[in-house]
Design a protein that fits this description.
Helices cover 37% and strands 26% of the residues. By secondary structure, the chain is an alpha+beta fold. Strands 3-2-1-4-5 form a 5-stranded mixed beta sheet.
């Protein structure tokens, strides 16, 4: 079985400019506990460019949680802010940086962008400008 956390960080490094705001800057470290062993993921963000490593370095924002929970975050089953509010993860340092980074986490399975639903609903209808409708 694939590792959702590793896949998540790989995707972040490849698609950082698409997922994060262009002005985002800072460093995050995710300390993931699995059976008493702590694994580290260090993320450096600089204007859309993202570098990921396993370094245990000081960071602007340090997030600590269980590896199992992070796997659920990485697949969209759990949302970061909800986990933070339930004290399932702890944050030390720059919380607003984590709030910016949460854009990188996927949406819950089965959710759709409301704009897509509207596009489907009105598909096939030609665009009618305001001037064309006026008598």
């Amino acid at each position: 079985m694939a590792d959702p956390t590793a896949e998540f960080f790989s995707r972040i490094e490849e698609r950082g400019p698409d997922l994060l705001p262009a002005k985002a800057r800072g460093t995050l470290r995710f300390d993931l506990d699995r059976d008493g062993q702590v694994g580290h993921w260090f993320v450096a963000i600089n204007r859309g460019n993202v570098l990921v490593s396993h370094e245990e370095r000081e960071a602007d924002c340090v997030v600590a949680t269980e590896k199992e929970l992070f796997d659920k975050l990485a697949t969209g089953e759990v949302q970061v802010l909800a986990a933070y509010n339930r004290n399932d993860l702890t944050v030390r340092g720059n919380l607003p940086l984590l709030l910016v980074f949460r854009r990188a986490f996927p949406s819950p399975p089965g959710t759709r962008d409301p704009r897509e639903r509207i596009r489907e609903r009105f598909a096939g209808r030609g665009r009618v400008s305001y001037r064309e409708r006026r008598p």
